[in-house]
Specification:
The chain is an alpha+beta fold. It has 5 helices and 30 strands. The strands form 8 sheets. A 4-stranded antiparallel sheet has the order 3-30-29-28, with no helix packed on it. The longest helix has 151 residues. It starts with a helix and ends with a strand. This is Autophagy-related protein 16 domain-containing protein.
Length: 546
């Protein structure tokens, strides 16, 4: 109990406070008594006594106040042990909860610290980015300022150019008016000059026509006389520049099979009195072949469309091709260069022929329903004939004055090429005429039609002197070309099944059937020296037959 009271007294120390008057008296008592009067000493002693009495009262009061505590402490320690144990367990539970709460708060604090660090790093990066953007903004502002200055300068320059442009336009309008006036005057002068030249050309053409007519008549008379002369199967002409050929043989063997063109070969022609063959195809090329060896001699290029027909002058110097590009192309055979491009047709040119005695005049037919006569020396058209039905084939007479034309309506028509008048018309076929070929002596003309019939006409009377047909012979296209042998004894024509049939004109029957090609035959041509016979098909292959 004494220990408990001491602890209680330690926990509750006694504080003694003196009144202010007493403190004054005590402080005054420290001063020397020599300087203080006796009355003051008595007052001081009384004050001291009063202070002791107050202190005792306070001590009594404090003892009364601490009485319950002292009685409580005096109870047995065993009775409070259970209560303290319960309180201790509660406090331990609370302490554990506090530790758990503290661990959660620590984890959250760690997370928040990490987030704070990342936010701080991101903030630093953004501050750096802001600094960079501010620098870029400053540069952009400077650039904008510079561009604004340039815009101002360019605007001033543009205003200056606009003003200069207006002046130039006004000057250009003035010069254009002058040029138009000069052009109209020039055109008038050119028209007058062309009219004069046309008049001169007409006079010259009349003179040339008269000269050629006289020469053709003389040569025609000579041919008629020479055609009657036949010794040992050899026919000759004794005049200068004439041709000579032997009797034609019936072909039976394929000597060469040549892949001449890609996409099909639509036209072939031999040189006069030669075994050299020209071929034209859908690859827009014309090729020159040696039929003795089957080798390529040269290629002629320059056509802008498919080659639909070929013709060669009698001196073998110029080759003319009819093209699907609405033009005719004239090559120099020796140099291989294009001499002329004849323009004037408005649709594809499907047929062409050359005068038998003159290397100057060419006749052509196109799907614009016109036949045109061309002068190769001048390089332009000299006459045009109009008709109603499309023409597929064409050829010139021996004298070069009459044109034979085969049409889609199945008719054979004769035209005076100089006047353009229709001389005669014969209904030779029930379907389109695909080929027109003149015999060497000029007395017969062969026509082939889509009705798969081949008619031989007498050119003097236009009467049919022979009709040739075969059960397996079917023409493959509207431009399937047949031909007559140089001795005027045989006719050769191709079929859609790839065969070539050879007829005897005098007998009217087939004397040979040639089988080597597998695709439709488009054209046949016989060499002027009697052999070989050539045929071309739709796959671009050319076969020579002997």
């Amino acid at each position: 109990l004494t220990l408990t009271k001491k602890k209680s007294l330690r926990n509750h120390p006694i504080k003694i406070s003196f009144p202010s008057s007493t403190q004054t008296l005590i402080s005054a008592s420290t001063t020397p008594f020599d300087s203080i009067e006796m009355s003051q000493k008595e007052k001081a002693m009384e004050a001291i006594k009063d202070a002791f009495r107050a202190l005792r009262k306070r001590h009594i009061l404090e003892e009364g106040a601490h009485g319950p505590a002292i009685s409580a402490l005096s109870k047995p320690m065993i009775s409070q042990g259970s209560e303290w144990k319960e309180k201790t367990e509660k406090l331990e539970l609370e302490l554990q909860q506090c530790y758990k709460a503290q661990s959660r708060l620590s984890e959250q604090l760690v997370i928040e610290v990490a987030e704070s660090r990342s936010s701080k790093a991101s903030l630093q990066d953004k501050e750096l980015l802001i600094n960079d953007l501010e620098k870029d903004l400053c540069q952009t502002r400077e650039e904008c300022t510079r561009l604004q200055e340039e815009v101002v300068e360019k605007t001033k320059t543009l205003d200056l150019l606009i003003s200069e442009n207006k002046e130039v336009r006004s000057h250009l309008e003035e010069m254009t008016n002058r040029a138009q006036k000069a052009e109209s005057e020039n055109k008038m002068l050119i028209d007058r000059w062309m009219l004069q030249k046309m008049q001169d050309a007409e006079r010259l053409n009349e003179a040339n026509a008269l000269y050629e007519e006289m020469l053709a008549k003389l040569k025609a008379n000579g041919l008629e006389n020479l055609a009657r002369q036949q010794v040992d199967g050899i026919v000759r002409r004794n005049e200068d520049g004439t041709d000579h050929f032997v009797e034609s043989t019936v072909p039976s063997t394929c000597s060469h099979r040549i892949h001449a063109h890609e996409g099909g070969c639509g036209s072939i022609v031999f040189e006069y009195n030669s075994r050299t063959l020209f071929t034209g195809g859908q690859d827009r090329a014309v090729k020159m072949w040696d039929t003795n060896s089957g080798s390529l001699i040269k290629s002629l290029h320059g056509s802008l469309g498919n080659i639909l027909d070929l013709a060669i002058t009698h001196d073998n110097k110029s080759l003319i091709a009819a093209s699907s590009s609405n033009n005719l192309f004239v090559w120099d055979v020796n140099s291989g260069r294009v001499r002329h491009t004849l323009t004037g047709h408005t649709d594809k040119v499907c047929a062409v022929d050359v005068s038998k005695f003159s290397s100057r005049h060419v006749v052509s037919a196109a799907y614009d329903r016109t036949i045109k006569l061309w002068d190769l020396q001048k390089g332009y058209c000299t006459n045009t004939v109009l008709f109603t039905s499309n023409c597929n084939a064409i050829c010139l007479s021996i004298d070069g004055l009459t044109v034979f034309s085969g049409h889609m309506d199945g008719n054979l028509r004769l035209w005076d090429i100089q006047t353009g008048k229709l001389l005669s018309e014969v209904a030779g076929h029930s379907s389109a005429v695909t080929s027109v070929s003149l015999s060497r002596n000029g007395n017969m003309i062969l026509t082939s039609g889509r009705d798969n019939v081949h008619n031989v006409f007498d050119t003097r009377t236009l009467e049919v002197c022979g009709t040739l047909r075969a059960s397996g012979n079917r023409l493959a296209s509207n431009w399937s070309r047949s031909c007559i042998s140089p001795d005027d004894e045989y006719v050769a024509a191709g079929s859609a099944d790839g065969t070539v049939h050879v007829w005897s004109i005098s007998k009217g029957s087939i004397v040979s059937t040639l089988r080597e090609q597998t695709s439709p035959i488009l054209c046949c041509s016989w060499s002027g020296i009697g052999k070989p016979l050539a045929s071309a098909d739709k796959n671009g292959y050319v076969c020579t037959w002997t």
